[in-house]
């Protein structure tokens, strides 16, 4: 071997010393004992904090997820190909966090907040920890401002308020994502920032969702966090917390935010994979014992702050997928008990053409009633009971051929109502359209319409109201009240339209 020039040796030594200094200052360095499936076990770091970021020799970052007597378990935020037994790991003394800022609106980012839409760097205004304690009771305010979904069946019977957590639950392909997306589309011009978090979905599905948002101009106020099925479990696990960190940034600045977590069943599965790899003991359905805490600490961060604390809000719409409509499975019951209500989408209804397939009997909204517009509350008064009676009567009478007049009328009224609650994709209804529809329907001003023609009749009637009597719609939108005289006027105009269209 050729002799080394002393200068070269000195420069190598200097380099080593420089690196040594960088790592050793306030830091501890450990070595990897084993690595695989996005998890590394590290020996030699004694004072790591839970949730602390660690850096591997090749620059890859990870997070401390498990602390044991002689080693720590780290989840890796990337491919583990460059890491092997003996690789050096250093503490950073920093909690895992994501960059946040106004520039994130309109962008698509990964679980760590890095842009993946090819539109270049995002200028961050700050850095927020991924895990953050939920606001305390003193900082909160009760929910009183509605968050309108634009979906008649939800706004009338299961109203959602800003700061509420409303679960969307149902089997696969029952329109869960569509309900959430339509809600985002309906926030246009309402000063609500939307954050859509895709967890463990196909990349093609995420691309489709983004194109729907773009088509309707909703990307102007929306950020998409995406961790697709091909990402490792740690990234899928962390993405909803990262999305919430950005939401908190806006909430503490006094903004209203809508968060969609699509979906938390896949999130629980990612956490299960991660926990089993960390050798935590499996419990029911092989989920670890703390799987309830996984979602409660996430959803508890959605709240409405009082003015002193910032005055903003985070409304959460988590999505859960059930198997064969089983609401009593482990993860569904957990999330049902954490949230303030659920919208249950049923596959039988969906397949029979009732879309959105909201099951009126099993859905509920526990706090939104206080936030519902007075006009809507009055117009929707008896709809829920009427529908429940209709469904019961429908089952009861399906085999009998000769029915008395009263029953026939009630069945007709019920089927008309069901038809009115159908709504195509991406066509939200405004408050006055919803109020006029319900007012006319509950006052039986649409009883003469054939069920099949109901949707078209509704559209024509609403157009007639807007063109011939625009002041009615304006009054509802401005005052958000429905005094008796206005209700009477709506019924009169509806009857006038009925006479015209006959
Ligand atoms: N109101 C509606 N009117 C017409 N079609 C609808 C409606 N809602 C949903 N669909 C259609 O139903 C299909 C399933 O919808 P969506 O993807 O929202 O369901 P999902 O429950 O989120 O599905 P997944 O289980 O794949 O997550 C889509 O093709 C969508 O276009």
UniProtKB/TrEMBL annotation:
Q: How does it sit in the membrane?
A: Peripheral membrane protein
| Signal peptide coordinates | none
Domain ATPase F1/V1/A1 complex alpha/beta subunit N-terminal residue range list: 27-92
What does it catalyze? ATP + H2O + 4 H(+)(in) = ADP + phosphate + 5 H(+)(out)
Report the EC number(s), separated by commas if there are several.
7.1.2.2
Question: Subcellular location, in the record's words?
Answer: Cell membrane; Membrane
Say which family it is in: Belongs to the ATPase alpha/beta chains family.
Provide any one GO MF term from the record.
ADP binding
UniProt keyword annotation of Translocase present: yes
> What EC class does the entry list?
translocase
- Protein name listed in UniProt: ATP synthase subunit alpha
Q: Whose protein is this, by species? A: Blautia wexlerae
Q: Which CDD domains match?
A: ATP-synt_F1_alpha_C, ATP-synt_F1_alpha_N, F1-ATPase_alpha_CD
Task: Provide the alphabetized UniProt keywords.
Answer: ATP synthesis, ATP-binding, Cell membrane, CF(1), Hydrogen ion transport, Hydrolase, Ion transport, Membrane, Nucleotide-binding, Translocase, Transport
Per the record, the gene is atpA_2
Q: Where is this site: Required for activity?
A: 363
Function (record text): Produces ATP from ADP in the presence of a proton gradient across the membrane. The alpha chain is a regulatory subunit.
Q: Which SUPFAM superfamilies match?
A: C-terminal domain of alpha and beta subunits of F1 ATP synthase, N-terminal domain of alpha and beta subunits of F1 ATP synthase, P-loop containing nucleoside triphosphate hydrolases
ATPase F1/V1/A1 complex alpha/beta subunit nucleotide-binding domain spans which residues? 150-365
A Pfam family of the record is ATP-synt_ab_N
């Amino acid at each position: 071997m050729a002799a080394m020039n002393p200068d070269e040796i000195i420069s190598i030594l200097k380099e080593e010393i420089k690196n040594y200094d960088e790592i050793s200052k306030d830091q501890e360095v450990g070595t990897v004992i084993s690595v695989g499936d996005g998890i590394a076990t590290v020996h030699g770091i004694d004072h790591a904090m839970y949730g602390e970021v660690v850096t591997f020799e090749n620059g890859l970052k990870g997070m401390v997820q498990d602390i044991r007597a002689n080693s720590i378990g780290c989840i890796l935020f990337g491919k583990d190909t460059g890491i092997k037994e003996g690789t050096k790991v250093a503490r950073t003394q920093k909690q895992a966090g994501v960059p946040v800022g106004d520039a994130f609106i309109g962008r698509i980012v990964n679980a760590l907040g890095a842009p993946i839409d090819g539109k270049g760097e995002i200028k961050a205004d700050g850095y927020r920890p991924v895990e953050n304690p939920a606001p305390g009771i003193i900082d909160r305010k009760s929910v009183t401002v509605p968050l309108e979904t634009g979906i008649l069946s939800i706004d009338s019977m299961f109203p959602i308020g800003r700061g509420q957590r409303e679960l969307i639950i149902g089997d696969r392909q029952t329109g869960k994502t569509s309900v959430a997306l339509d809600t985002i589309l309906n926030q246009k011009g309402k000063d609500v920032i939307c954050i859509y978090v895709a967890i463990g979905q196909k990349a093609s599905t995420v691309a489709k969702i983004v194109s729907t948002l773009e088509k309707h101009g909703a990307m102007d106020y929306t950020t998409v966090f995406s961790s697709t099925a091909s990402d490792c479990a740690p990234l899928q696990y962390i993405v909803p917390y990262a999305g919430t960190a950005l939401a908190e940034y806006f909430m503490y600045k006094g903004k209203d935010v809508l968060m969609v977590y699509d979906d938390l069943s896949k999130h629980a599965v990612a956490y299960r994979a991660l926990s089993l790899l960390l050798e935590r003991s499996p419990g029911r359905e092989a989920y670890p014992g703390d799987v309830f805490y996984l979602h409660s600490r996430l959803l508890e961060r959605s709240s409405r702050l009082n003015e002193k604390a910032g005055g903003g809000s985070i409304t959460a719409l988590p999505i859960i997928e059930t198997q064969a409509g089983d609401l009593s499975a482990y993860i569904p019951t957990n999330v049902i008990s954490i949230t303030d209500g659920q919208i249950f989408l049923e596959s039988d209804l969906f397949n029979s053409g009732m879309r959105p397939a909201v099951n009126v009997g099993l859905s509920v909204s526990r706090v939104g009633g206080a936030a519902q517009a007075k006009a809507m509350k009055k117009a929707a008064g008896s709809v829920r009971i009427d529908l429940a009676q209709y469904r019961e009567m429908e089952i009861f009478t399906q085999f009998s051929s000769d029915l008395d007049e009263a029953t026939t009328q009630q069945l007709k009224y019920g089927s008309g109502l069901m038809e009115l609650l159908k709504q195509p994709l991406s066509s939200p209804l405004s408050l006055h359209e919803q109020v006029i529809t319900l007012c006319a329907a509950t006052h039986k001003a649409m009883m003469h319409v054939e069920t099949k023609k109901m949707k078209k009749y509704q559209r024509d009637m609403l157009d007639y109201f807007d063109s011939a009597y625009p002041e009615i719609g304006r009054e509802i939108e401005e005052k958000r009240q429905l005094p008796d005289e206005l209700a009477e006027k709506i019924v009169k105009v509806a009857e006038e339209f009925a006479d015209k269209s006959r």
